[in-house]
Amino acid sequence: MGDFTRHTDQFFDEAHDYNVSSGMLPDCETIPLDYGVPTASLYTTLALIGLMFVLYGYRAFKTTMGLTGYIFATLIVYKICTVEDLLPMFGNVGVSVGAGLLFGLITMLVQHVGLFVLGFHTGLLGGIAGIVVSRLLGQTPDTMWVCIGVFMASGIAGSMANLYFQKGLTIIGSSTYGGALIALSADYFLSRAKMGHWVLSMISLKTPQPVCWFSWAAMGLWPGLILIGVVTQFCLTGRGLHHERMTPARHARNFNLQRVRQEESRAQQQRKYRYLYQIRTSHGDVISQSYLQSLQKKVIPSGDDSVSMLHGSDHLPHLTVLNPESAHTTLSHVP
């Protein structure tokens, strides 16, 4: 636990130990393997959370919102506690974890708060990337307030956009945040988080120390993981889902389509019966019982109700008469 506290305090330092003026040069020949168990466990957990964000960020919507709020609040409260030095080390950890759990529950249960926090992280990471790229291109901001303004503006813009384009930007934001967690964890295991310190030096307008190639390789994982996460979630894990219902929209569409098809089949069957009835009546195959009885009275003696034949004029068809108690009578033309 002491190693974890020392490493966290060192990581949040202003990177004064990693300036070129300090004379410290990186060792690019070997990868350090003497990891502290608490710190290694922390970064392993962050890597697993990042992998879940990248692949299942939108599918596990509430979990993503809760973990985002938990990590954010825990780091902020822990840094405040260590700067003020009001509590012992275990007290700082307990207070930060408790605040993280509380804020994580809020972001998980209140949907718009979770979307706001995730969008703020996406915009903040975009602002950090913009400052780093501008410094690499030789455009260094004049003061630190410019960087703070960029971070706040990009974070708020990301939050507002995420509240408006909820599904699409949630997928992009979870992939971005998860990729950053994995890249940070890989940087720790490869170079003891020297790339993280390099980024802190860049955004704090200091001159950072050059880092080794495997630190750049860890940083290069980030854009690749973002692309993998966006494609995977849009095409596979997040397809057909919406966080407001959390039920497959594809099943709903299939149900509606099936109901429409059943109604069309029923209507088509009714039209078929109606058409057959019209064909039969147009050929004289169905005659009302009253009309038939009137013909019987004119031609057939009243005492004979059995089956008989009507031979009339050449203009009349041959008529086969059934029992008058039946509902219909069949009429056919005999060649």
From TrEMBL:
Matches recorded under Pfam families: TM7S3_TM198
Any one of the GO CC terms: plasma membrane
Membrane topology, record value: Multi-pass membrane protein
Transmembrane residue ranges: 35-56, 86-106, 113-137, 143-165, 177-193, 213-236
Location, primary (coarse class): membrane
Limits of the TM7S3/TM198-like domain: 45-234
Keywords: Membrane, Transmembrane, Transmembrane helix
InterPro entries noted in UniProt: TM7S3/TM198-like_dom (IPR025256), TMEM198 (IPR040236)
Protein localization: Membrane
Family assignment from sequence similarity: Belongs to the TMEM198 family.
PANTHER family per the UniProt record, alphabetical: DUF4203 DOMAIN-CONTAINING PROTEIN (PTHR31247:SF5), TRANSMEMBRANE PROTEIN 198 FAMILY MEMBER (PTHR31247)
Name of the protein described by the UniProt record: Transmembrane protein 198
Gene source species: Galendromus occidentalis
